[in-house]
Amino acid sequence: MRGRRADDASMKDRRRRDGGGGGKFSRSSSSFTFSFALFLLCFALFSVVALSTFRLFGVSFQPVLLPTWRNPTMNAISGEYPLSRRDLRASNSNLSPAGLRIEEAVAFPDSVLLFLKPQSFAAIANLRCIYFLSQSTESHLSLPALSSSSASSCVRCPLPLKADVFNISLSETTLPQLPPILPLRSDHLAYAAVLDTRDNTTVIFAKGHNLRPARLSNPNSFECIFGWDFSHPKFSLSSEVLSAAQEIFRCRTPLSILQRRRNSPSIFPFVSVRFKGHGSIPLPSIARPETLSSPQKLQRPSKAHLMCVCTMLRNQARFLQEWIIYHSRIGVERWFIYDNNSDDDLEQVVQGLFTQWRIMISLHEWPWLKTQEAGFAHCALRARESCKWVGFIDVDEFLYFPSNFKLHDVLRNYSRSPSVAELRTTCHSFGPSGRKTAPPEGVMVGYSCRISPPERHKSIIRPEALNPSLINVVHHFHLKDGMRFVNMDVRVMVINHYKYQVWEVFKEKFHRRVATYVADWQDDENVGSKDRAPGLGTKAVEPSDWANRFCEVNDTGLRNWVLQAFVDPNTGHLPW
Length: 576
Known about the structure:
Keywords: Glycosyltransferase, Membrane, Transferase, Transmembrane, Transmembrane helix. The protein is of the alpha+beta class.
């Protein structure tokens, strides 16, 4: 018994010793398990990083850090943007051996506009437009191009008769024919866009939603789309529309787009607008947002110019010198000219004005039909950083100061009142003044008889005080809350509007009006509007008494001042 107890005691001693050993093994096992788990975690992280550089089925994947919060105003469908069919076409199929490609094509009612890259090729002579009217590339029509411009990198082609759907290309004797492209419709298109760096919003200009004139529309009915290929929604971003008016949509810019813009300024997606709702598709788009100012410029204590002018014109080159030289002399410092499909020598006239007079003129191609309001909104954004005041007037409208006030004195006076954002200036409409041919001395000296009552007003505005919607009608804008307009005293400042000139000039108005909501002269609409000539009708037929119409007041005030201030005493000639 005693021996058994001794054995039991001996076993307990061994168990205590083995217990110590067993404890050591348990701790080793736990340590091993922890090390193994750490190894697996490190291996998993290494695999993620390694795989981020691999290519799977031809697609490169990169790690993306996503925010843990969700912006209720932006629905991010996807944050990755592969090369789209449009970019593939631009980088491959539309490249000729010489490097020329057709980037976009847009069909208008009377022509097709081709946008070329590189820009220097747009002015090649003897270009021919090639039309493929069926699926077969062997069946085609060849017509000479109507015009081309190196400044705008555009070629204008005639519209083929009886062809609703066609592809179009270009050829020239020294260059191979370019691959054809299907034109987009000009009346169903997002055609321009601007990145507003003040609030990081994107302003989109688009035709196709037919919003009402002079009124704000419900922005909640729309959403903005950013992407490289709208046919693949998963590669697009949608964002909130903040305002919608006429053809102008202001949207929040997705944060990923802003970041991409900072990292790759030359790479920016297309933007468009669509109605909200299942199955709704965006408008076709050629619009990539352009940045009109940099954040650094916003720090400037003052603006470079007190007074600038924006205008939109078509085939007005012969009148441009008088209009610009006169207004430059009285205090306009900078010009923004939006060219709406001119085919005269506008570019040469603008270059001549700079060369001879050192006048600052920005010539901007704006081919979109009946988009004056959108063009003026675009111009207001462009002018905002450098111009304190901007006038929106036409080439046949001239500021005049009957009491010999100076333009800069008037502007400085109202600049002292922070709440004044618009100077509404009365227009006096002049008639042919008995003439049957255009006056060689210019309109200010050539026409001196006008209608007695004023017809309307035009505006000089502070661009920074405009309503964010940029809504505007007949050359005046809606203002921000708290800002106000002033009706100018006609003894201080008026506009001489040489509206009813000799018939050979006036009949050009029958071609087309640039304003979106103004009926063309040929259309039997709004025949009593002040935009029309009273009693003229819709036919470009000269009335027998046209030369003597619209003559109620003999007003020679501006004429006399111009002859006194502008005539060269040595030659007796006016500078234009």
